Amino acid sequence: MFKIPKLKLMLLMSLALVLSMSGASGIVGQTPQPSPTSAVSSPSSDIRADDALRVACAEAIEELRAARRLIRSQDALIVSQGGLVELERQISDGLKRIRTLDAEEKELLSSAVAAARREVDAIRGANEALKRNQATFWKRLKWVVVGGAVGVIAGSVLVRR
Fold first, then answer.
1. Most Cβ neighbours (<10 Å): which of 27, 120, 121, 127?
2. pLDDT (tens place) for every residue of the chain, 161 residues total
3. DSSP helix/strand/coil, 102
């Protein structure tokens, strides 16, 4: 943004330099008068001044063309950099979405693992309860002995009466 005004300033300064050089050589305004002591056969300085002005103008025109080429190339560079900035923003947004999805997936996986652990613990508890309630040989023998003892006690109580 600041390069364009600097270029204009540089171009204006070049133009002012060309005009001041042409004014100093006497092209703009009045032409210099030959000194009274100069020889009649010496060439006029107007030709040299015209050549210097033409060279200076040609150089100024070439500088203007170079500045225009520079401006065009900088415009293209700005456009391409804008595209790169947009691409970087899209990549950054995509990365944020991936990180968000990863966090959500991790949360879902951890909740699934926790649910699986709770279910496994519930099944283990149910197995323990079933094992405690399962009739084994020793448990059956215990109930037979208890039943026999109750029968003996009941028989002895009934016989005494």
1. 27
2. 445 566 666 666 676 666 666 554 444 444 455 555 544 455 555 567 788 888 889 999 999 999 999 999 999 999 999 999 999 999 999 888 888 888 888 888 899 999 999 999 999 999 988 888 777 788 788 888 998 989 888 888 888 87
3. helix
